[in-house]
Records
---
Amino acid sequence: MLDHALAVESDIAKLREAVAKASAMHEDDLRNETVSKTRLELAYAAFEELTTAMNDLSKSTAASRESLKRELDAKKALQDYKRDEEKTRKAHGRHGYPSSTPRLR
């Protein structure tokens, strides 16, 4: 009977040791899982920021191209107007009409 009691105590000690090792391993794995989830959440947040930044860049690039087109159109209109006025001024000068517009630059 004493042998059986000693064997039971020994088995219980071995099982407690196995439980402690398994518990410690589970705690490590749980910590690693938490870290991995946090990293995944950060990656998703970074991806959302990247997507937002790409959309913002796309919109601002389109706006910049449109404003450049308007600027170039306005400059061309000014150059065309100046050229036409200069032609008119020269034509008036050749025909002896006084010019009421100053020379444009």
---
Amino acid sequence: MKRVVVPAGLFLLVLLASSTSFALGREFVSEAGRFSVVTPLTLNETSQTVDTKAGKILLYLFGGEQGDIACFVAYADYPETYVQSNDPETLLDGGRDGAVRNVKGTLVKEIKIKLDGYPGRELLVNGTTADGKDFTVKQRMFLVKNRLYQVITVTPKGDTSRPELDEFLNSLKLLSK
């Protein structure tokens, strides 16, 4: 569970040099992922296999960047038996630890949250790129049955109070099968 987070290299795609303004609210729907979000950016899909304590897991990632901002939504399905044999809070702890480790960051804040009754976490993580630019990751993750959803923003350090990014982070909706 600890390694199913957006890889650090994807966060480092963001250019942390200039200020950018966005239009609020374009809906993005993933029927296969069974979710929707309202995003200020165009999201492009990629996938990769990652090694976890539960074995190899396919991570689906939808991401976009503009100027000094990046937005991501990711999901991964764990084996049901793995999730059933572990405490959800312990699995989310592993997701948190992996998120911090993958960006070589420092956990600044963590809040336990819920989405439609499912357990989750909101994280604030500070880090520095290889070329010395400080950034902040604000992330929400939710364990929905055996699927881990993540909604992530990356901004220049401390720049976390943009309405369009709050709307994005708060907009995750689960779709029916």
